[in-house]
Write a structure and sequence with these properties.
Blueprint (H helix, E strand, L loop, with lengths): L11 E4 L2 E6 L7 H17 L7 E10 L4 E10 L17 E6 L7 E6 L9 E2 L2 E3 L11 H16 L9 E7 L5 E6 L5 H17 L6 E7 L2 H5 L9 H9 L2
Amino acid sequence: MTEPLLQSTGVELLDVRRIRLVEGPAPYLSPENEAAMNRRWAESVRANPHLFDGPVAACTGLDLDGPRAVVVTWVRTTYRHYALRRVPGAGLWPSLFVSVVQPVDDGRVVAGRMSATTAFPGRWQLPGGSMEPPAEGETLDLAALRRHAARELVEEVGVEARPEELRLWLVSRGDERHVGAVFVAPSLPAPVLWERYAALVASETARGQEPELDRLALVKSPDELAELGGNLVDYLEPIVRRYAAR
């Protein structure tokens, strides 16, 4: 049975090697909450015109599916739906996303600060992003998660990795039940990482665009995260701590 969508305290990190994704029906959204969602979305777009209402996969359930395996129930919606975060009691469907731990040779990992053109300006997180529903005839599965994680890594950091090089490590479930598949990329020398990120920034700037991550940092401990300043996504500190202790 799928778990009810209740808020938790803290972040869970599940040691997972297999993920099975099952599409489910979208939960009911009352006319009142739909109207409130549309108002909040319009306010958000006025405040940040870079926002767009594209398709996204939300998560409505996470259950164990055997040793080191989970089943994730997901539904089709659009980014507008996440405006319900600002509507008390609306019953937001949590997001489904991927994150990538990109290590360098001395054991530090990449954290990135989201730029002013993103949905969460100034927030520090791992490279990654929300999952989109599959196109007609395609399947949302572990391979699709890997492909999306590889795409986010190159788009946000400039590091190219083949999807099959990304190792599924954890599934995170955050304070508001958002679920993330966490992959580990092959380690790189720090100078190579900085070179690739600098090339990405130069390319984006030449096109008149701002990179999604406007700053990178290499961190190895929660203390180093605390020195970054600004907001941290809820899973970042637990994952950095877990990776350092592996």
